[in-house]
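hi! just following up on the protien thing from before. the input was this:
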Amino acid sequence: MDDSEPSRNPYFDNLKGLLILLVIFGHAIQPLIFKFPVIRSFYTFIYLFHMPAFVFVSGYFTHKRSSLKRLFIYLLVFETAYRIYFFVIFDTNPLDNIAVPSWIIWYLVSLIIWRIMARFISDDRVFIFSIISFPIGLLIGLVDQVGEELSLSRTFVFAPFFFAGYSFSLHKPLSGEEFKRFLYPGLIIILCGLVISFTIFQSINTRWLRASFSYGSIGTHWPAGIIIRSIIYMISSLLCLAFFSLIPVKNTFFSHFGKHSLKYFVGHGFVVKLLVALGFYNLFH
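and the predicted 3d structure came back as:
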């Protein structure tokens, strides 16, 4: 979700553009998921893959010299802005839960941590680390003390996707054409994902999808928690691959959003939360 890549590939601009629109759409419908089962199922489907895919792309565009200063500035500015904004529209205390990033700002915190980690992992070990980070993401759910604070739970849970993307950038650069061979299988996987979201996962606790809570916090014992997260990992990975196969390789309407994805990401939250504060979602019954 970094807009600073020196050379642009239309495939990745389209990919990021579609993903940021899914992020905005997911946040826009979130206040309605407990009112309308259909909306909740669509929300589940989106959250099964859109953040893992975005994390993968962020990893792909990471390199040892990626600017941390710019991310720290974004973090400081928008964390402060959101806390003040929530104080104005929701009358919350800006100093409450200071260790918990304000809503969507968790991504900036996690991205900084991932990029710091990437600087200390030798290039020939990144692939191995991406594999090892899967069981770490499973085991971290056993630790009740790891949750929303400093976005640590999400950092660990989504780390496999980040380092998978980082590994590809180092050892197998992508153009987008590689995924086209999976187009028809991808369509089948997308359809299966929708069916799962509207049936088996229709009533799933959305905390599983946000990856910011331990198994105990969700009310699940550890054996079941590890199994459920493993299944989500598998489904998310397949849906990411399927989604990648659908992306156009030439400039489209979505390219613009991809070129400015970070700005849309940090900015759209102000609009969504204003709609919540104004009672817009109360109009839907």
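The mean pLDDT is 94.
Residues 222-245 form the longest helix (24 residues).
cheers
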